[in-house]
Each structure stands twice: as structure tokens, then as C-alpha cells.
């Protein structure tokens, strides 16, 4: 343990490299299909090109280039009409050629920006570059208690198109990193270039982090944390590394420029190797690929077909429907959720958009989390949700019953009306029935009535719960509250026990 250090004396300086798999049907430089790593047999989607056999020639995937153009334009990048592929040389078992085809000096897009919304307001994160490359294979390390252990290689992922998006070191807090990463993921998904499925590793983060005294403009020695495949891992790794560097610096130590891994089980970073510089990779132009030329007509066509992006959509939702920035941010993360929201508004014009938004971001997401389900798996249509909320607004059911019905709708797909009728869940709006239920509960609890009359007025809430229980949760809460107050005050005035 180092000396006690106030973190406020220092600030972190963070840049992110985001590796996003592009959702093409085939690989970057060959016709092998891109397969689901969780469903396909190892090494079942490999050919001589992506296996690095001698004498084979790569061919650029046109769809991957178009996807890169979409992202570059969405991030307000300068699109370069001519870019070059290079060989990035390093030797590792999951890189069958012994080099990776990537873009280095001449990327397809550069000098962009991404606006994020933080608790301190808007902030611009500069995008240094976005370049195309191919992914590596995947290693599985196996421990053998009787021997030295071994590793298995699966080349299904080798050659899958990647877009690497590199920021300038513009982030200084975990909040900014999280907001940037989640905003970028939402953009990639909305553009249709990436599924956003973090569990399958289609987006991976590498964070460059250093620390300096508050107010300084110096860029100190940085460490790079590799292969972070979830927002949670990224935040935990950065929090640990920032604290480590602050303590080391405050104690007079020196931060080494190195590549780090993250041990999630033990909660710490660990050194993998000294940090490479560009010359360590011995970049040189890929001799088997000509310059990648992108005509202005192609750029214009891609630009004209871009969908509404999450940020403008969130602002439109706020101004058109009056929902909060927080609700809007949740709704636009997934394009399917945003469409569901607007379709529910169209299907239920009498229902407030604010109520619809609250039910989607609240009850719907809560059910998905509890049941481990994805949004695209739900059995409730926008019109079915609008119908349920209309019944709630009309007083056919109350709020607790509506939540119960919605849960059953999500589980089984039946419409609200059918569930309400079959289970007799209609709200009790008859004043005579509610009055009788209140009298029944008061007469059944004489001791509590005496305590109430003696001044323990908090018992009114207990009585309310008892009456609602007797009504199986179906009493109109406003009518029940008013009738209960009337009868309690009458008892108090009359002095009856």
C-alpha cells in the first residue's frame, strides 16, 4: 500500500481504441462466411486466404468498406478518397499469416468527433481515425494438472472485418468513458453495421491511460489495457489502473509504458509486455492490395441513406413527446425499442407518450432483466401495450393490476383484455362495494380503530392495505382512500369504538 493520496490532486487522461466487428456476411479479404462463434464448430469457416497459405491473394470486401463509410460519416469524419492497407507484422498463434492486414498511415476516415452527454453537460470527444483491418483468431488456454497445459486455436474469427475507432486522449473520468462507449455502441447498432452483442465479443475496448496533476497539460507515460469486452470490465479496469498510477506517481515512482491485461476474478491489471511503438510492427504497404479508392458519388450515396442517429432522435423525442433526457437516452440505445415506442404512441393516441416511455424504460426493461430476455424476443406488440395503458387510464384496472397483467402479457403473449376477463381483474369502481369493504375491515379490527381514534393516525395506511387486500388489489385506490378517510373521520367524530 502506498501513501494516502487525494485523487482530486490528479486527473486521468484516457483515450479509447474501439474494435468493432462489421456485420458483413463474409470476411474482410475472402469469401468465408462470418459465423456465430457460440454456435459454429471451431475452424469450420476457414479457407487458404484467411488461414494464411502461401500464394493466395486477398480481395477487399466492398460491404465492409461501405459500413466503414457509414460510421465515418456518422462520426463527422473526413473521408479519404484514397487509403492504403499495410502489413502489421507480429507473430502470435491466432494470427496465421504472421501479419495483420490493417490501415496505418492512410486510414479510410479521420478527424471526426462524437458529442456525449455527461452530468456536467455536453462534451466533444475527438476521433483521431477510423481504419479497416482484419480480426485475429481466438485462443483457448487449457490448464493440464498433469502437464504444462496447452492452447487451442479457432480461426473462424480470423479475417472477420474490423473497424478500429481511435479517440484523442480527451476523456478524464469513468463517466466520460462510459458515456462515450455507450453512445458509440448505440450509433454502430443504429447504422446496422454491428449487432452490439457484447457477450459475443463484437465490440472490444482498449484503453490508453495516464495521470497528471490537475491543471497540467502534459501527456505523461501511458499504459494500455487490452481486450476489455464489456462496459463493466472496462470501468473496473480503468478505476484500478488510475488508482495504481496515482499512488505510484505520488510515491515518486515511474509509470512504465506497457501493455496490460485485466484479471476480472482478482480485480487488478497485470503486465503482458512492454508497449510496442509503430516501428515495432514494421508496417509496410500491403503488396497484394492496390490503394482503396472511394469516389465522392459513393460517399454521397451512403450519406443520403444514413438513418436518424441516436442523439438527434433523443432530442426529437424530448421536444416532440415531452419525455425526460434520461428516458430518451434509454429508448434510443436500441433502434427496435425506439420504433416500438413510436408505434405504441400511434396505436394509443389517448395515452400520454410520457406514460408509454415510463412503462418501456421501467416495467418492460425490469422484466427483461429479471428473465434474461432480449427485447427482440418479447411477445407484446406496441398496440398491445397501448391497449393495456388505455385500460389503466380509463379506470378498468389500477396500477398494481396493470403491472401484473403486463408481466403475464410478456410471458405468454395474450392481450390485456383476455387476461383481465379470464382472471376477473377488473377494477372495483362501485362506491357501494368499496364502502362495504371499508366497513368490513374496520369492524374486523376494533383494537386498531381504538388506537387510531387515540391519535395513531398512521394506521390509516395500514387500514388502506387491509381493504386493498380484501379487494384482491382491485379497488380503485382514489375512491378507496376517500371512503376510508370519510369513515375513519366519522368514527372519530362519533366517538364510536
- Share of residues in helices: 25-40%
Count of all domains:
3
**Could you describe the largest sheet, including whether it forms a barrel?**
9 strands, mixed
Arithmetic mean pLDDT: 90
Strand fraction band? 15-25%
Annotation, overall tally of beta strands: 16
Radius of gyration using CA atoms only: 30 Å
- Side by side, the strands of the main sheet go 2-6-7-10-1-11-12-13-14
Low-confidence parts: none
- Principal-axis shape: elongated
Kindly name the structural category: alpha+beta
Number of continuous helical runs = 15
First-last Cα distance: 68 Å
Could you characterize the architecture of this molecule?
With 497 residues, the chain is of the alpha+beta class. It has 3 domains: 7-301, no CATH class; 308-423, no CATH class; 431-494, Orthogonal Bundle (Arc Repressor Mutant, subunit A). It is 39% helix and 20% strand. It is built from 15 helices and 16 strands. It has helices at residues 62-74, 174-190, 231-250, 296-304, 310-321, 325-331, 335-347, 353-371, 382-393, 399-412, 416-423, 431-444, 446-453, 459-470, 477-494, and strands at 10-21, 78-79, 82-83, 86-89, 99-102, 109-118, 121-134, 138-142, 150-154, 161-167, 203-213, 223-228, 258-263, 268-274, 284-285, 292-293. The strands form 4 sheets. The protein has a 9-stranded mixed beta sheet. Strands 5-4-15 form a 3-stranded antiparallel beta sheet, with no helix packed on it. The chain is elongated, with a radius of gyration of 30 Å. The termini are far apart. The model has no long low-confidence stretch (mean pLDDT 90).
Amino acid at each position: 500500500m502506498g501513501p494516502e493520496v487525494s485523487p482530486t490532486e490528479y486527473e486521468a487522461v484516457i483515450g479509447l481504441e474501439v474494435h468493432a466487428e462489421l456485420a458483413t456476411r463474409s470476411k474482410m479479404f475472402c469469401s468465408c462466411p462470418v459465423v456465430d462463434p457460440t454456435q459454429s464448430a471451431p475452424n469450420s469457416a476457414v479457407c487458404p486466404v484467411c488461414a494464411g497459405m502461401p500464394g493466395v491473394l486477398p480481395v477487399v470486401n466492398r460491404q465492409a468498406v461501405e459500413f466503414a463509410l457509414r460510421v465515418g460519416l456518422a462520426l463527422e469524419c473526413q473521408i479519404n478518397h484514397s487509403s492504403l492497407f499495410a502489413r502489421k507484422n507480429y507473430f502470435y498463434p491466432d494470427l496465421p499469416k504472421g501479419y495483420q492486414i490493417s490501415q496505418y498511415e492512410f486510414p479510410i476516415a479521420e478527424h471526426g468527433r462524437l458529442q456525449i452527454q455527461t452530468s456536467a453537460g455536453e462534451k466533444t470527444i475527438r476521433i483521431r481515425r477510423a481504419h479497416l483491418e482484419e480480426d485475429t483468431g481466438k485462443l483457448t488456454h487449457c490448464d493440464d494438472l498433469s502437464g504444462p497445459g496447452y492452447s487451442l486455436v479457432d480461426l473462424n474469427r480470423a479475417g472477420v472485418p474490423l473497424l478500429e475507432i481511435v479517440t484523442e486522449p480527451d476523456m478524464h473520468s469513468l463517466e466520460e468513458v462510459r458515456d462515450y462507449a455507450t453512445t458509440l455502441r448505440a450509433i454502430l447498432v443504429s447504422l446496422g453495421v454491428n449487432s452490439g452483442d457484447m457477450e459475443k465479443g463484437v465490440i472490444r475496448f482498449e484503453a490508453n491511460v495516464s495521470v497528471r496533476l490537475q491543471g497540467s497539460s502534459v501527456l505523461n507515460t501511458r499504459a494500455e489495457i487490452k481486450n476489455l469486452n464489456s462496459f463493466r470490465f472496462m470501468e473496473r479496469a480503468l478505476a484500478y489502473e488510475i488508482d495504481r498510477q496515482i499512488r505510484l506517481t505520488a510515491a515518486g515512482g515511474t509509470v512504465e509504458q506497457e501493455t496490460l491485461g485485466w484479471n476480472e476474478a482478482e480485480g487488478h491489471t497485470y503486465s503482458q509486455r512492454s508497449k510496442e511503438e509503430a516501428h515495432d510492427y514494421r508496417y509496410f504497404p500491403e503488396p497484394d492490395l492496390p490503394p482503396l479508392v472511394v469516389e465522392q458519388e459513393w460517399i454521397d450515396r451512403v450519406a443520403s441513406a444514413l438513418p436518424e442517429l441516436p442523439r438527434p432522435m433523443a432530442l426529437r423525442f424530448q421536444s416532440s413527446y415531452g419525455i425526460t433526457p434520461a428516458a430518451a437516452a434509454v429508448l434510443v440505445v436500441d433502434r427496435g425499442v425506439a420504433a416500438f415506442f413510436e408505434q405504441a404512441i400511434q396505436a394509443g393516441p389517448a395515452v400520454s407518450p410520457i406514460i408509454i416511455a415510463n412503462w418501456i424504460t421501467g416495467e418492460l426493461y425490469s422484466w427483461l432483466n429479471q428473465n434474461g430476455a432480449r427485447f427482440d424476443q418479447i411477445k407484446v406488440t406496441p398496440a398491445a401495450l397501448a391497449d393495456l395503458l388505455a385500460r389503466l387510464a380509463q379506470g378498468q384496472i389500477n396500477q398494481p393490476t396493470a403491472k401484473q397483467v403486463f408481466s403475464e402479457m410478456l410471458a405468454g403473449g395474450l392481450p390485456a383484455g383476455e387476461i383481465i376477463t379470464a382472471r376477473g381483474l377488473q377494477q372495483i369502481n362501485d362506491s357501494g362495494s368499496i364502502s362495504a369493504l371499508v366497513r368490513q375491515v374496520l369492524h374486523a379490527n376494533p383494537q386498531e380503530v381504538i388506537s387510531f381514534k387515540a391519535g395513531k393516525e398512521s394506521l390509516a395506511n395500514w387500514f388502506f392495505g387491509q381493504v386493498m387486500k380484501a379487494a384482491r388489489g382491485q379497488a380503485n385506490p382514489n375512491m378507496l382512500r376517500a371512503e376510508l378517510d370519510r369513515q375513519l373521520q366519522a368514527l372519530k367524530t362519533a366517538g364510536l369504538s
